TrEMBL record:
This is DUF2200 domain-containing protein. Pfam families: DUF2200 (PF09966). InterPro entries: SP1917_dom_sf, UCP033199.
Amino acid sequence: MQITNEHNEKMAKMTFSSVYPHYVAKVESKGRTKEELHQVIAWLTGFDDQKVKELIDEKATFDTFFKKAELNPNAELITGVICGYRIEEIDNPLTRKVRYLDKLVDELAKGRKMEKILRKA
């Protein structure tokens, strides 16, 4: 699927707080925990639980969320298709980062082992 400028703008303006409850529901419905979700978020962004809460409370957009993040150097190892988009073909850096997070949440919900999700050797 082709990503449009409008799609990229929508991703930038979407708030993390609007998506976070869906992440929690998705992983918990598959038997995973909120703590595991936070471990995945921390691996990708460097955010601890307190920082995640602050970003939710301030209703940070994904643009702000990822500007404050220290992206894991192994994030580029996250590949595959999520929401119909091949991650490694996404040109817009912010949209790619949002899809990295979506992919990690999806892998967690599907029961993948944490060391595989966190791209450990």
